Structure prediction request, 369 residues.
Amino acid sequence: MMMKKVSESELKKLLNTGWQSWSYSSPFTNFIKFPPLNYPPKKIKGFSHLNLEYESNLKPPAKGWCSWYAYGGRINRDLIMKQTMWFAEHKEVPIEYILVDGGWCREGDWLNENTRKFPGGMGVLSSDIKKLGFKPGLWISPFQASPRSRIVKEHPEWFVKKDGKFIDCLQLTPFDQHLFYKKYLIDITNPDVRSYLYSVMDRLLGEYGYELIKMDFLYAIYFHPELSIEDADLYLRDFLTYVSEKYPNVYTIGCGCPLVPAIGVVDSMRVGPDILLSPFLQFSSRAKSLDMFIHKKVLKIVNNRVFTKKYWNIDADAFVCRPTLSHTRRMIKDNMKLIKDSGGNIFLGDDFTKLSSKRIQKYVLPLFD
Prediction:
């Protein structure tokens, strides 16, 4: 194993592209820091507390299908297996992984999957995906939980509070406490919480046998009011190190992740925002304008971070090309070029049982050339 040290100049170059996966500007320069999640909540003093090394030989980039842009959180066993069977019958699309994204359980209840949507549980789903010749993958946001989750009700002492109220850790706006949509922050400083999180990973990756894990919203612990940036760095790195060292054959993806402390402890990193929002918005004309704005941001951010492929495999988000979206042919071509030029992961995001063979030939297959 060949390990390389990271220089201070490399760290500065990395931070100048933004703090975490979705950030688009340096945390040192912007006077107006909005939205809050894109910026560290406290001043970054340096990284002497981290022993940053990375392997010069990375795992091969992942090639797969991801459920998020096809179905959002409205997933179930039948939908996942329907896609898996399609790919099993169409080997000309050379993917390896089937990634089950958000919606398989209520966030926070990682040990209590939704067996109404997934009869038999996520272990059975993992096994059935493998039987069809694919590697199962799973999404998780380990540091946050739904207010309606069982874990919040059973262990309220595991969650961070301020003035007696649960802290919302999405950090979308300065007024999050007035929004309906909230996520509560789990207290990573609590030893019982860390044991719980480790047991979650042991079940999903050890017992259930998932071979890819996408860990999302990892910036959340940085908004713990009693944690310094340096302490949050260490807690994040310890968690990622646990996963990478105990399950070295599992492919790990960081998302919504502070970049610097993840160097050397993830196989892949999302290096830009979500590629589009329109599948989840009903007002199509506004969604189209928003998607065009996001598209330009993604192209700029990912291109600015292509140099980070020496630390991890680039994840530029899923590729979508169905005609019902707001993406123009030019935008689709731009996304194809972005993914190919980055040399990283290729995740497909359409419902392939409905995608025409013409579009597969024109847009999908060239991604794998």
